[in-house]
């Protein structure tokens, strides 16, 4: 197998592009896909300050690496969820990257510790509010990502979601005809009102396998294991199904997700009127001030419930 660009020995084949690359040409290919994503979806410019949410996994660390190497001003935020040694090991991976690669670009790492700020680890909080751990975790992460971006005055917040994540999410939304989620699913969500940060996913053109290869070839040390709470999740099932289709017919994931984006772009006038509607129903949360459609945002409601539940069990 030879690299299609320079004809030296290839290290990776990409059936969906009918291509193969050597190490340097593959890195160039990955950088080019991210640059295209940023341009096509008007994500940010060279002057913007970007906050990358990094989990210690391959996708978000690769994203931080790529943005710095492409010359963007990118800092990062790690949310320590207090999931025992898993969280400690993930934080260690993020810290090592921050102290080595990111430090050479003068980039900063911010750390939010859930046990310190929210008063308990994610599993205990989920028990207190009687909700599944992953949805409790999602509410906290979304809230803290947005809050950090707004309070620290970043122009945009970036996550490491890749093509596999987005295609799996689209499959889930279509299977359940979640119209509201379908309207809002995309690689670039504008800051619709004051208090909401713009959110982007610059890896949406790259498959999970490609991002993993980039991380390995560029010697990024990341946490390989999935979050222990994710076992048996629907997302993993959807990814598995899509991977089976991809093996039979390379390019399926890309056609499915990019096809959806093309349709969405054609229907943009309708989508933007949705945003208008959303904007009209948003107002500041009575407790924290972040925009919400209810009296209190879902994070504050959840934290209030946790407090009541905690004082009931301890009698304090
Ligand atoms: P996941 O939902 O675990 O697939 O993660 C999707 C994206 O959310 C990652 O690529 C990161 O950008 C971000 N993320 C997930 N967990 C964390 C965390 N604990 N701290 C900061 N960012 C995170
Ligand atoms: Fe949130 Fe695992 S419970 S990442
Ligand atoms: Zn609130």
Fold and architecture overview:
By secondary structure, the chain is an alpha/beta fold. The chain has a single domain, classed as HUPs (Rossmann fold). The protein has 13 helices and ten strands. The protein has helices at residues 23-40, 58-69, 84-104, 114-117, 122-129, 133-151, 163-175, 179-184, 208-217, 234-248, 252-266, 268-281, 298-314, and strands at residues 12-14, 19-21, 49-53, 73-80, 109-113, 156-158, 188-189, 198-200, 283-284, 291-292. β9 (283-284) and β10 form a beta hairpin. α2 (58-69) runs parallel beside α3 (84-104), α2 packs across α9 and α5 crosses α6 (133-151). The protein is globular and about 70 Å long. FE2/S2 (inorganic) cluster (FES) binds at residues 81, 122, 133-134, 137, 227, 229-230.
